[in-house]
Amino acid sequence: xxxxxxxxxxxxxxxxxxxxxxxxxxxxxxxxxxxxxxxxxxxxxxxxxxxxxxxxxxxxxxxxxxxxxxxxxxxxxxxxxxxxxxxxxxxxxxxxxxxxxxxxxxxxxxxxxxxxxxxxxxxxxxxxxxxxxxxxxxxxxxxxxxxxxxxxxxxxxxxxxxxxxxxxxxxxxxxxxxxxxxxxxxxxxxxxxxxxxxxxxxxxxxxxxxxxxxxxxxxxxxxxxxxxxxxxxxxxxxxxxxxxxxxxxxxxxxxxxxxxxxxxxxxxxxxxxxxxxxxxxxxxxxxxxxxxxxxxxxxxxxxxxxxxxxxxxxxxxxxxxxxxxxxxxxxxxxxxxxxxxxxxxxxxxxxxxxxxxxxxxxxxxxxxxxxxxxxxxxxxxxxxxxxxxxxxxxxxxxxxxxxxxxxxxxxxxxxxxxxxxxxxxxxxxxxxxxxxxxxxxxxxxxxxxxxxxxxxxxxxxxxxxxxxxxxxxxxxxxxxxxxxxxxxxxxxxxxxxxxxxxxxxxxxxxxxxxxxxxxxxxxxxxxxxxxxxxxxxxxxxxxxxxxxxxxxxxxxxxxxxxxxxxxxxxxxxxxxxxxxxxxxxxxxxxxxxxxxxxxxxxxxxxxxxxxxxxxxxxx
Length: 619
Fold this sequence. Notes:
The structure is a single chain. The chain has 619 residues and is α/β, with parallel strands linked by helices. The protein has 27 helices and 15 strands. The protein has a seven-stranded mixed beta sheet with strand order 7-6-8-9-10-14-15, with helices on one face. It has a five-stranded parallel beta sheet with strand order 2-1-3-4-5, with helices on both faces.
């Protein structure tokens, strides 16, 4: 729910033209546009200085109008630091509606350009601003609705984001613009948990919003059968012909019918069913078949599926499957087998590989890569932590290949954002005591040495409590439940219990264990949706006897079956998302299918969806 969904502004360089256009069109506090020859940075600075001088002797609200206008000119002249020096000292309570709107737009964009998301949230959520929206010119209202919608979606406030997009679309008269807004609205709806959608669809008093919720719920209930989903969407449209979603349906919905026409009639499932990887392969197969039979027993419209063992050689098996009529191949599972297919001159039928290659440049057209990438989860943890204001992280990761992949992805993402990472030595899987790993990283030894030096200087014993380093504001952890149950209490013992912990999905295996999970209290993690939602029926639930990693492989098998219906639509419309059991799945660069997961939290020894951070709305 917190993945980075909209990069609102990437750098200050984007601000001058945007804000200059904003301030000098339809704004009662802005001067009349001047000839282009005078619109240089020097001229804008001169105008800003004139407004600053004029503001000295003026009462409110004229003073605030001149100061906001000066800030806008400084931004347009690429002097954001001078603009902020003005804006941060203004009192919005003294401003009339249009000046308040200009102030909020300018200051929130400055905040967003510097990743100060909650400052922007306060600025755009100011009660006086919201209540004055109906009084503003349409263009300015649309700007504010757009900013609010994008920011709410970014912060995980999807219900609020949907409402803002709905109002934004209602103000537009351009069909293409309305369709583009509806696409964003649809993406925001896609981030609302199914249980929340059910509640909203049942309780909303706004007919327009209720219609959107019901439509989204229809598509969420039938991800495993695209034909049934299409039929139910058409039925909804016939019952709601005047709804905005019926007049301007989201692009994904419009193109479902074409995707159905291109569905394969025969699928080959390629897995290493014998040999070293047989347990993993059989688990994926069981999940795949659970999804297959679920559709078969409910509608009967499924492709013919043939399963092949790749142990005899994946290239020959792939060619055999094609010779027997396969129109799509799902698998193989091993990286080396995927690389072998990538090395072929051409792929006569498309392949959805169940892993990721090390070198994406080798991926030929028609080869898609899907798996349980821990790198995706690590980047998602960095994304959420950064949005929540964390800047200095301590990492605790295992000395395994997947642990190395996790810390490498987190490090790369975190440091690119400007964050600081303190890495502990990678821990062995069977480590009995985590104190020797964590204690040095927390600089407790230095704290104790300082105390000893002070005692020697004073010549007496002192009451002393060791003090950990104070620059840390979070922990990034990769661990299975048994390891996490040792790491969290050790951090508590070492005076780091106040640090928020962001973990990957491995910390929870989907089996509630309140007696033991009290040692995981407060940990937030990117969760496999199937472990949170309770959506899986009995025949699609992985066996409790499976190890945590294999339970997730079962869920991956379910998604592998569902993907064969959606991969064509994803290739045509990359914004298309499949609500799978392992996450929201979309097609990224290099034909890599990427997962974005909801966040869970251990709360009073049980797992719940993680709440969004609370922010104030007054200034």
